[in-house]
Amino acid sequence: MNSSPELDAVVSFIIAIDFGTAYSGYAFNITSSDKESDHHLKRWGKEQRLETPKTPTCILFNEDGKFMLFGYEAKAAYIKMREEEAKKHLFFENFKMALYAKGFKGSKDMKIKAANGKEMTALKVFTETLGYLKSDALKTVTETTGRKLQASNFTWVLTVPAIWDHSAKQFMREAAAQAGIVTEGDKNKLVIALEPEAASIWCKKLPADCFITQNLSENALDQSAGTKYIVVDCGGGTIDMTVHEVLRGGALKELHKASGNDLGGQTVDRKFKEFLREIFCDGVWDEYERNYPSEVQEMMYDFTFLKQLDEDVEIYCSFNLGMLAQKKQNIEKFFESVEGASWDEGAIKISRNKLRSFFAESLKISEEIGEIIKKDFSIDYVLLVGGFANSLVLRQHSIDQFSKRCKVLCPVSPQEAIVRGAVEFGRNPEVVVSRKSRFTYGVAVCEPFDESKYKPEKKITADGKDWCQDVFGRLLDEGQDVYCKETTEHVVCLVNENQKLMEIRFYRTERKDPKYVDDWGVEEVGSVKVDLPDITGGREREVRVEILFGSTEITATATDVVSGSEGSVSFNFLTEAETS
Ligand SMILES: Nc1ncnc2c1ncn2[C@@H]1O[C@H](COP(=O)(O)OP(=O)(O)OP(=O)(O)O)[C@@H](O)[C@H]1O
Ligand SMILES: *[C@@H]1O[C@H](CO)[C@@H](O)[C@H](O)[C@H]1NC(C)=O
Ligand SMILES: *[C@@H]1O[C@H](CO)[C@@H](O)[C@H](O)[C@H]1NC(C)=O
Ligand SMILES: *[C@@H]1O[C@H](CO)[C@@H](O)[C@H](O)[C@H]1NC(C)=O
Ligand SMILES: [Mg+2]
């Protein structure tokens, strides 16, 4: 290495990975105190004569489950395979959505299905994906800077949807650890960033000429204190959003807890496919999908470009699809009963209205945005980011819906905003000074029994005193502001004089004020054990519970006040399947 040690001491290396449902990518910024700062975003698809900020989130394994290829290359290789080859290999796409599925509790054993129906554990698929992105990023760093650096030289940032549950975030951490991104002792070198938050950080820095002007009323974000805006990350899988206020000094405060849904860009693709199936009826489309999967992939790829438009469009109909159709009847006949579609000498013509109709499902997001705007935070802007924000239909709809109340903005490269902002976030996570808690959190406590307040079946007696057990001791309310690095404290008393060990169980709920920890809607999220070696204080001893909610994740410590003994801190959201 040719740089001096003094220089290295102040070097700060960051790599951010945006692991998306549809596309993934990374960016890094290597800055040293006296060199020009270098911020780099990898461009993908050179071999496909493309230059995109992300590559498809597709991964290919051989029949022994060994990783082969990722991204455009994986897609191209899978498309080229003959049927018997494709039957052996495992090809995965859109798998990030598995972590958003209802009931996902972070199980390490959960399996997901490849395109051919074969299965692999989700943890392996995620680990191999992160492993690939990690090595490719380190390779790119060497290529662009000439420096050979290792994973341990960097702070890594991993983006996740803000609406993800803690268990899903924890799962990503586990996969990152298995991929060798961070090691056991170095866990704090992995930062989890929330996608819309990262985009917000990026957009806030952008000068006026970095926003799209077409049709949009305003072309710059007022960056001064007091500005309030919603950032809507329109991705392939999820659309999620966050509401920020700019504070004096430029820090950000979250005004409304993260919200969103799973109606991202892929719902439009799905509608387009349904439409093709409707045109090529009588099983023609199904036969085409079965026999020519690679052509279908290509067609879907072409559609990505049509998705940007808001006009009548045409998509090429391949020779094979035409042949299959002609075998049944004259191809023009297929178009007679379908509205919005016509045959135009080898191409399928789709009317503007039909194209717009594919968006109907995803445009429901505007109701959710509208609800927030109505809450009267006096929001100044709606900022659209993510690849799906490239769609004119989506942008125009947002203008129609919101331009009366606030300004609608979209950066010129909306898909890059997330990963670029994530780099900034990695450098300074405290730029978001406070967030809204999405849940009410609490611990199970015992309270002196009061007949007028508590159910008789909750009564226990210890050392001659009556207690009510399972009382929900509130630590934090849903919707409450939580400041970065702020800890909330709670004192838990002992029930037994000679108690030498205490287990503190943590719970959460979307309800405001539950009474017991086993009420409906309350779930356990983890527990901490503390040793209480010194029993001389008897029941007067106290255990202090400290919770750090402020970052994008939760950590808890329980301390025996007398001995100073501390409980292990980690919340275990990762649950093994019952059978293992
Ligand atoms: N140029 C474009 N025009 C229109 N749509 C596009 C364009 N580029 C990408 N998209 C669409 O945007 C979506 C992908 O955006 P993005 O990369 O932000 O999502 P993601 O990060 O993979 O998904 P998520 O954030 O939900 O995990 C896809 O539905 C894709 O079809
Ligand atoms: C890289 O990070 C430094 C430090 O935050 C920042 O000043 C610089 O603008 C970044 N580079 C780019 C190109 O954004
Ligand atoms: C990178 O990490 C290695 C080992 O972890 C260390 O020896 C080396 O000094 C680091 N390099 C820089 C530039 O920090
Ligand atoms: C946006 O521009 C299109 C043409 O580019 C036009 O038809 C449409 O009416 C415009 N919408 C608004 C709200 O200005
Ligand atoms: Mg995304």
TrEMBL record:
List, alphabetically, the CDD domains matched.
ASKHA_NBD_HSP70_HSPA12
Please give the Gene Ontology molecular function terms for this protein.
ATP binding; ATP-dependent protein folding chaperone
Gene3D superfamilies documented for this protein: 3.30.420.40
**UniProt keywords, alphabetically:** ATP-binding, Nucleotide-binding
**What does the similarity note say?**
Belongs to the heat shock protein 70 family.
Q: What is this protein called?
A: Heat shock protein family A (Hsp70) member 12A.1
Q: Provide the species name.
A: Kryptolebias marmoratus (Mangrove killifish)
